[in-house]
């Protein structure tokens, strides 16, 4: 079905479907193996122990690559639109791309350095991934408003900004509650020390993660209008 999508819409569509599958498959495997409790574990908790750790690491690394490709295509589309409309500075578009690529790098770190193996590196990667991701979708929401009404409808812009605001609101307590947890573990049970902090932080983490997924879902319509062409020139001496 992805092949039937016009333009370059297959990029965000594949990113959304693959990332959703990565979260869900890892969660189901971790719960069935008894490695985490079913009630809102951290996303990273579902990819810490084998066999789900291998699936989680592989799929999240692919998600990071797909996200980078999607962000770069988005950058190219805005540059093309900007040639006639001049609604945003090229430097701002480039800065937004760089922020997004930082988030992709953070995702790669999260997938490569597991939570219990190298917790400090893992936590830094998660902070970079979520922090850069929130900034990226916020900047993209602002750019979307600037491109109205020629390249976007206000309805789509309102949806993107709503997702951005919710993600920003969830990101702050996610960090605050996580900072109050005094131990690194994945087998949390209700009633034990710091469980409330873990539970609230995990809810916020899942909210931000699926906020990213729903945000990239809104790119599909925009990407359908464009196609990428690669031209090869051969010069003879």
Explain how this protein is built.
By secondary structure, this protein is mostly helical. It has one domain (about 10-220). The chain has helices at about 10-30, 50-85, 90-110, 120-145, 155-180, 195-215, 220-225. α5 packs antiparallel against α6. It starts with 9 loop residues before the first helix and ends in a 14-residue tail after the last helix. Pfam families: Frag1 (PF10277). Belongs to the DRAM/TMEM150 family. It comes from Catharus fuscescens. This is DRAM1 protein.
Outline of this structure?
This protein has helices at 10-32, 52-85, 90-112, 119-146, 154-179, 195-217, 219-223.
- Measured between the Cα atoms of the first and last residue, the distance is 45 Å
The total of beta strands comes to 0
% residues in beta strands: under 5%
Tally of helical segments:
7
The dominant shape is elongated
Rg, Cα atoms, Å = 19 Å
Describe the main β-sheet briefly. Answer: none
Poorly predicted ranges: 231-237
**SSE arrangement, N to C:** HHHHHHH
Domain count: 1
Question: Characteristics of this structure?
Answer:
disordered C terminus, 7 helices, 237 residues, 68% helix, elongated, mainly alpha
Show the helix and strand layout.
Blueprint: H1 10-32, H2 52-85, H3 90-112, H4 119-146, H5 154-179, H6 195-217, H7 219-223
